[in-house]
Design a protein that fits this description.
By secondary structure, the chain is mainly alpha-helical. The protein contains 24 helices and eight strands. The strands form two sheets. Strands 3-8-7-6-4-5 form a six-stranded parallel sheet, sandwiched between helices. Strand 1 and strand 2 form a beta hairpin.
Length: 675
Amino acid sequence: MSTPLANEKKRYIAGLDGLRALAIIAVIAYHLDIPRISGGFLGVDIFFVLSGYLVTNLLIERRRDRQRLDLSDFWVRRFRRLFPALIVMLMVVVAWATLFDHSMLQSLRGDVGSAMVYANNWRLIFHQVSYFEQYSTPAPLIHLWSLSVEGQFYIIWPLLLTLGLRFTPKRIQMVLITLSLALASMLTMILLYQPGSDPSRVYYGTDTRVFALLIGATLALMLPSQGMITNPSRRTRLSCEWIGWLGLAAIVALLLQANEFDDFLYRGGFMLAAISTAMVIIALIHPFTWISKLFSLKSLRWIGMRSYGIYLWHYPIIVLSKPTVNTGAYNWKLALTQVTASVILAAMSYKYVEEPIRRGQLSTALKQIKKFTWNRQQLSVKQWTISSLSAIIIILFVSGMILHIPATASMAREVVSVPALAQPDSKQGGDQPVPPKKPDQGDTNASHGTDGTPISAEKEKTRDGDSTTVNTNPGSGPKAEDMTTKQEAGSPAAQPKASKESGKSSQASKPVKSSKSDWGNVTAIGDSVMLDGGPYLEELLPGIQVDAEIGRQMSSGSKLLTQLQKRRKLGDTVVIGLGTNGVFNKKQLENCLGSLKNVKHIVLINTRVPRKWESQVNKLLADISANLSGITLVNWYSASENHDEYFAKDGVHLTKEGSQAYAQLIAKTLSSIEK
């Protein structure tokens, strides 16, 4: 027998919906790349702790009221609450892809299937799909990993809780068991995390993230909502207030300061966020606290009650409407439009899907349909519209799921490993003709096909297993490591200025071309961006030795420079263009520069890449060049501002015009260096 809705309303804690609102606002800000909210991804951890608390609290209440736990009833209620809205969103996304982007359907099939069985996070792990990478092919369902973690918790935790409460005579014993499981999960994260590598495995994993849900469950075991204090003493009131405000202050600080590549996060930072959220919940379940009154504001409660739908819809809308190339200022109008569309769709889902099904109105409607005598004249305009749209979406969904999409070279794909960031767009080959090499120059970069597109020399693993990348200089240095990292990208105005930077604009009045004798020997080490500009550098600066490789990062670049130094093959000037493929820390950069003995001058090139780590890379390069002598910064980020035409469709690689501007900027900087 189901618990009456009236009884559920008596247990309603308004402040918890306000906390949900804070969580979804943080997550949206993170996905919108809003500057200065780099830790918005921690909103997911707030959801985890809330879910752990509410589910455990509900199970304890029902066990107390009925002297047993009806798990089948619990699972049916969870299914009715979560699954219908998820299905509607999935159908709409697949219908959109069927109409407008068939290349997306191949990966969507796996995403849809895994999301429907709440296994999306493990699918992403097994296919090595990085959460910290935005691919040239949109991945509008990658955010469902967190719902899969929660879904698995809803299935397993009630079973464990039932057994635990049955065989532990004292509640404190179950509390200790739950805390032990949470600590084991946190230790698993610490052990599996490898600094400097892509943290997606520990970020996605149920085993490494369940501690946040268990922290909420522990709190429910210790302080269930029915045990809230209604007539507190002054000491109790002050204690609850201080606990809540300290927890909120910690959450806000993490949302503003944390970034997803801080070692601190994976060595206790996520646990700190979970504990801070639990502290806020302690204050929120007591209605006498000021923080509870704050989070009970009607506007916050409205958002919180629809937070599930907003979470479902916001990411597909952002991904599918976001331009791949944007070198201008932050587009606040687009962001506002995306948020508005997300809220509208979530509100419609809440009113027409979630609430009716949760209240059992679906079965009543189905019975009425069976008895209904179909007559076009009896249907209202609203009924005709809803019926027609539903039929169209269902047809497109089925078509998209069964439509065969051949794997062709021209089809965009979702690349999973970092080296594929440097993968040339097969459609842009005609946009990047390579200047002819002189016979005595040799081909130090890549072999090219008849269309000017680099020929693939090294296959690279992809999500669908059939994509390739180019190794332009095999054997020239260590192979790039397969790792991705990212950092919140700031606005152009937020990028730091170095005291020794060059090139606010890449537009030069006349091309800079020098002879080899003008400036001595130069060695340039870079990634795929330098690979694009390499032929033009060799044309502008005869004698320059360019070693560019797709997917190269600072770690492998440092090893290569050390090898060249030992073999005495470094020039008097070394140009380093790395940062497209991942973040690096100060120690890695200092080790790289420390290997450059007997080098007269070092030139660092900052980056413009539509990835979260862009601002961190540029800030570090600016700080190093400003504080160390003999280092010059080439400000490619500023020079390429408001020049969308410099970049290919993936927003990473350069067109012919961009390659020329890139080479011209470097040549101009080198020509200005005093020898």
